[in-house]
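$ ./design --mode recover --in tokens.txt
reading tokens...
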């Protein structure tokens, strides 16, 4: 079976503009161009598009998806099995959140009692899942599975008070960074205060502090567009400013 852009877009539930963009960036080329100049897609392209959409649903960026699919060692069946496991994990997280919401409703209606720990259980689990989907591959590659698993376990074990404290600390860090950037000097008192707050925030997730790892993480904030977009959402250049402040704070020279 062969499909034009319009037909493939219709059965896949995506726009023709998206398919044309995928062609432009080389992630999904048509099988051929017919005599009328139309892109024609065959079964191999349909299967590849399915993988692309699975990865997109799991939060993987297009550049990374392209690298995965272009790898000669790519195994389509293994990828499908992995997709299935990841989707089942997401299902479990959603079911846990739904259960949490249902219990909270029952609590407010006076039908059950609910501990503070139970109130936050679903949110912590969802946060771990979201982080894994967005950044898991990069973080695991950089720091190893053991370090990431320990960090996830530490988050999962947070008490209500710790969870509230780290949330407040994150807000304080954001505000301090914004003020420090007005002065434009990462070595300033405010700039170094931001770096210290970032270290304090990290220790809610890390078991041990390491200056090199801290500086390396700050560099990742600049190199990875998703981290950069997160920090730069209100003020462009925030990721670079924080990286520079942390490099000065740790005394570990970052990469330019």
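writing sequence...
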């Amino acid at each position: 079976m062969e499909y034009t852009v319009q037909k493939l877009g219709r059965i896949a539930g995506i726009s023709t503009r998206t398919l044309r963009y995928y062609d432009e960036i080389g992630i999904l080329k048509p099988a051929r161009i017919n005599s009328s100049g139309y892109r024609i897609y065959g079964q191999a392209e349909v299967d590849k598009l399915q993988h692309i959409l699975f990865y997109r649903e799991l939060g993987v960026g297009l550049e990374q998806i392209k690298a995965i699919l272009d790898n000669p060692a790519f195994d389509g069946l293994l990828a499908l099995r992995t997709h299935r496991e990841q989707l089942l994990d997401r299902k479990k997280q959603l079911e846990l959140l739904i259960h949490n919401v249902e219990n909270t409703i029952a609590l407010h209606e006076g039908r059950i009692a609910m501990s503070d720990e139970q109130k936050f259980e679903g949110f912590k689990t969802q946060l771990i899942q979201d982080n894994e989907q967005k950044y898991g591959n990069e973080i695991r590659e950089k720091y190893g599975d053991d370090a990431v698993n320990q960090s996830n376990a530490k988050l999962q074990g947070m008490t209500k008070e710790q969870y509230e404290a780290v949330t407040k600390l994150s807000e304080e860090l954001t505000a301090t960074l914004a003020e420090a950037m007005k002065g434009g000097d990462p070595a300033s008192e405010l700039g170094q205060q931001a770096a210290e707050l970032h270290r304090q925030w990290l220790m809610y997730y890390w078991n041990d502090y390491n200056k090199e790892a801290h500086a390396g993480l700050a560099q990742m904030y600049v190199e990875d567009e998703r981290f950069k977009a997160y920090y730069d959402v209100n003020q462009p250049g925030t990721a670079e400013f924080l990286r520079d402040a942390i490099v000065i704070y740790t005394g570990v020279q970052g990469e330019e």
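exit 0
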